[in-house]
Amino acid sequence: MGQFENLSFTIRPIHDVKEFFEVSELEKIIWESDDPVPVAHAVTSVDNGGMIIGAFLDDKIIGFQYSFAGFNGINTYLCSYLLGVHPEYRISGIGEQLKLAQCKEALKIGYDLVTWTYDPLETVNANLNIKKLGGVCSTYIENYYG
């Protein structure tokens, strides 16, 4: 971790609408896109079984994890949709901490399964999901992200 050894950040669930807008702005920075998850959609998702967890350095959001409720016709689960860390703080361990907090929160609110997708060609993401977090890939869907 080197330069991030003394980085002291806080991780907590987000419920404040102002912070939902901050997440939206962070999405634009991370993915260089003007098409983030709509704030109203995120708020509704969180109010109905989803969650957004933020990583904060002082009062500035530097990472987030967004999940929504899923249902496959038989079971409910948490569907992990986005995990992003500000480019200045990548490889700091924040992504892993956000995923661990997601697991803890999911169990606390009653989920016993979290699913997520990832692109196996994105090696940093694959390393986090499979190697570090112990995820199991059981399905491959070609061209999932278009």
From TrEMBL:
InterPro entries: Acyl_CoA_acyltransferase, GNAT_dom, GNAT_N_AcTrfase_prd. Residues 9-146 form the N-acetyltransferase domain. SUPFAM superfamilies: Acyl-CoA N-acyltransferases (Nat) (SSF55729). Pfam families: Acetyltransf_1. PANTHER family: GCN5-RELATED N-ACETYLTRANSFERASE (PTHR41700), N-ACETYLTRANSFERASE DOMAIN-CONTAINING PROTEIN (PTHR41700:SF1). This is GNAT family N-acetyltransferase.
